[in-house]
Write a structure and sequence with these properties.
This protein is mainly alpha-helical. It contains 1 helix and no strands. It is rod-shaped and about 190 Å long. The protein starts with a helix and ends with a helix. This is DUF948 domain-containing protein. Keywords: Coiled coil, Membrane, Transmembrane, Transmembrane helix. It comes from Oceanobacillus indicireducens.
């Protein structure tokens, strides 16, 4: 029975050595995996920093562009207001021109009536003068 005990101890020792060998192997593989994971994560961190910087630059450019659009929009608003003022001025000018034309037309009609009357008087006077000259001769 002692032999069986020694054989059992030898088998247990061999099993313990094999188990230790596999544990050491597993720890080495795990260490390599963790090192690879660490390298990958460091690469991702670098890439994320680059993406963050590019996103910040893009956001700044977008803000500058929005400010520029707002500035130009306000300038266009002023231009549109000015154009509306010009349109109103043109309407007032057109109205004044129509009033002036109507006034000139009325004055012309009044003057035409006076001119017609003056021509009649002039013709009558000329006829009178001519008759008078004929009667002297």
């Amino acid at each position: 029975m002692e032999v069986m005990l020694y054989i059992a101890i030898i088998i247990a020792v061999i099993a313990l050595v094999v188990l230790t060998f596999y544990i050491i192997h597993t720890v080495k593989v795990t260490k390599e995996f963790l090192n690879d994971t660490k390298t990958t994560l460091q690469g991702l961190e670098t890439q994320l920093k680059g993406i963050t910087n590019e996103t910040t630059e893009l956001l700044n450019k977008t803000n500058r562009l929005a400010d520029d659009v707002e500035l130009k929009s306000s300038k266009i608003d002023g231009l549109v207001d000015g154009a509306q003022g010009i349109g109103e001025t043109m309407k007032e000018f057109d109205h004044s021109l129509k009033q002036l034309t109507n006034s000139i037309s009325r004055a012309s009609q009044e003057e035409q009536a006076k001119t017609n009357e003056a021509v009649k008087w002039g013709a009558s006077i000329l006829e009178y003068v001519l008759k008078r000259k004929e009667s002297k001769y």
